[in-house]
Write a structure and sequence with these properties.
single chain, about 130 residues, alpha/beta, six-stranded mixed sheet, 3 helices, 8 strands, about 30% strand, globular
Length: about 130
Amino acid sequence: MRETDVLIVGGSAAGLTAAITARRHYPYVSITLVRRESQAVVPCGIPYLFGTLGSCDKNLMSDEPLERNRVDLLVDEVTAINGTGKTATTADGELIRWRKLVLATGSRPIVPPIAGVDLPGVYTVQKDVGYL
């Protein structure tokens, strides 16, 4: 069983911000961040709209802030949370005991039901590395 003072579920903008904020205010606690993807996508479509990225691979967030702030990264998916027992279970079967829990799972962009949204040359903003 893994034990951590702060467990953060979700590794995009909210999870990263929560981890850095926790470290700033609690410099000596253990912090574990769990995210499904080995790389996280920058959760903003504006660079795509204005063509400022140059390529999709530049839309990935670096793990350097996690490393610099001594945050343990676990690439897995939390599939169950036991609030009474203060444990979380991952898809790989790992049990994590926590003192504080942050759910930072984000959101899913909605594609409105507009005629032609599925045509070639029409793009939606997806927050998924596989879509890049």
